[in-house]
Amino acid sequence: MQLPDGIVAVVKGDCPTCRLVAPVLEGLAVTVISEDDDAGLEVSYRNEIVTVPTLLRVEGGRETARIEGWSRPQWQAFTGVEGLGPDLPEHRPGCGARAVDPATARELAVRFGPPRVRPRPVEQAAQQDEAEACFDRGWSDGLPVVPPTEGRVLAMLDGTARAPDEVVAVVPPDLVECTVEKVAVNAVLAGCKPEYLPVVLAAVEAACTDAFNAHGLLATTYFSGPVVIVNGPIARAIGMNSGGNVLGQGNRANATIGRALQLVIRNVGGGRPGEVDRATLGNPGKLTFCFAEDEEGSPWEPLSVERGFPPGASTVTLFAGEGPRGIVDQLSRTPESLARSLAGGLRGVAHPKLALGFDAVLVVSPEHARVFREAGWDKARLRKELLELLTAPGSELVRGAGECAEGLPEFLADVAITKFQPEGLLIVHAGGRAGLFSSIIGGWVNGDAGSRPVTLEVVP
Asked: Could you give the percent of the chain with pLDDT greater than 90?
């Protein structure tokens, strides 16, 4: 609806200030538009009216000026008419417009906004519960989801500047093109806020790279699934947890970002347990496994910087990992002793006699990190020490050694072998300030036969 030239007043019936100035408007040559009918609501939405009453000056069908609320001096200057409302107060603030009222804004975006979403309405019986309908259609990971109404998806899309029809990735196992809109739908299902969407998009892109190999990770009978590690200002901006209980429950961003990635793989790519997902046991992290690194309290450079991104960049690192396991050392006060404890825990990843074929993330808590900080050990020094401690004669690791059939091929018996390749041991600082504990997230098979960690920058 094009506005008529001249002065246009936008009002609503339940606004005290609008009722107060109604006699003034009747005496002026203005067009009055009320938010109390659909036409008025559309005008208010399309012209981004925030407060009523609002006076607009329109020339050639375009707004050239506006004022909000009631102010006699401003209205007189705006209209060129003196002596307006002599019995009214000099000033009176207006009310919030219906176009920005949270109760109606989402509906108006659907009705009057640009066609950003191509919805495919799902028929639902009048008495059917929305949450149960989502379960019935197979959209859930086993927990209740948020029904992805058009309004909710539109609100989610406000979290990114990327076009809804932009293809983010081709999602395995069915190799389906996944648009920003489809990611937004699953972010709604997961319970994300719009400001989380750029992180979810980056996670989806990283997961669908050849290097990460989401299809292989999904199809393996191993325990692992995607682990999302977030670095940079975005983590603080969206309220992610990098401190106490960092690998546990209780933080909406941590919980829903990882869940949204898994729902994209399920609902877009077709990766469902019992079908392509062939995990023998799995792990609870396959519902969601996402956390932020504690960069401010860390004695080391962030994981993102170590992986080639500049300081201050917001990134997502995808790692194919199993559930976390704890390392307890409450007595070590030297870095040498603590490194031995950490190495002892790392030795058990996959199996104590299996080496080089698996990666790991070592999550060092603040109390343990303090020991290394006070001794001046940087991350490179710690990694070097761990790799040396985790190097063993092949004769101890080959099949049959120690009366254990599992192990490496016999031809490696005369070779000294380290547990991890240097680039396969990631070190991250996170966790609560109390507790002399750290954690290990063991990886899936690495390299071309498995998965390599992938880090991408978060795009707004």
From this structure: 90
Asked, for residue 128, whether it belongs to a domain, the answer is no
Q: Which residue has the tokens 């071309």?
A: 448
Integer Cα distance of 80 and 82 in angstroms: 7
> What tokens appear for 270 in the block?
């077709």
Is 118 part of a structural domain of the chain?
no
Work out the average pLDDT over 40-60: 94
Q: Indicate if 190 and 288 belong to the same structural domain.
A: yes
DSSP letters, 335-370, are HHHHHHHHHHHHTTSS-TT--SSEEEEEEE-HHHHH
Least confident piece of the model among 102-106, 150-154, 204-208: 102-106
Q: Give the DSSP H or E segment for 184.
A: helix 180-190
Assess whether 67 and 167 both reside in one domain: no
Cα–Cα distance measured from residue 98 to residue 69, given in angstroms and rounded to the nearest whole number? 15
Q: Look up the pTM and report it.
A: 0.84
**pLDDT tens digit string along 272-293?**
999 999 999 999 999 999 999 9
Is 415 inside a domain boundary?
A: yes
Q: To which H or E segment does residue 130 belong?
A: helix 130-136
Q: What are the backbone angles phi and psi of residue 46, rounded to the nearest 5°?
A: -70, -25
- The C-alpha atoms of residue 198 and residue 24 are separated, in whole angstroms, by 48
Residue 56: φ, ψ to 5°: -115, 140
Calculate the alpha carbon distances from 293 to 243, 247, 300, 399, 455 in Å: 8, 11, 11, 38, 14
Separation of alpha carbons 339 and 431, rounded Å: 18
Q: Say whether pLDDT at 118 is over 80.
A: no
Q: How large is the greatest C-alpha to C-alpha distance in the chain, in angstroms?
A: 102
pLDDT tier at 408, thresholds 50, 70, 90: very high
Place 117 in a pLDDT band, splitting at 50, 70 and 90: low
**Do 102 and 188 share a domain, yes or no?**
no
What domain range includes position 72?
6-112
Q: What is the CATH number of the domain that holds 49?
A: 3.40.30.10
Model confidence at 435: pLDDT above 70:
yes
Strands laid side by side in the 6-11 sheet = 30-34, 6-11, 54-59, 62-68
pLDDT of 116: 67
Q: What is the DSSP letter of 99?
A: G
271 domain-assigned: yes
Show Cβ contacts of residue 43 under 8 Å, excluding neighbours closer than 6 positions: 1, 3, 10, 33, 49
- On whether both 95 and 12 belong to a single domain, the answer is yes
Cα dihedral: 262, 142, 193, 307 (round 10): -30
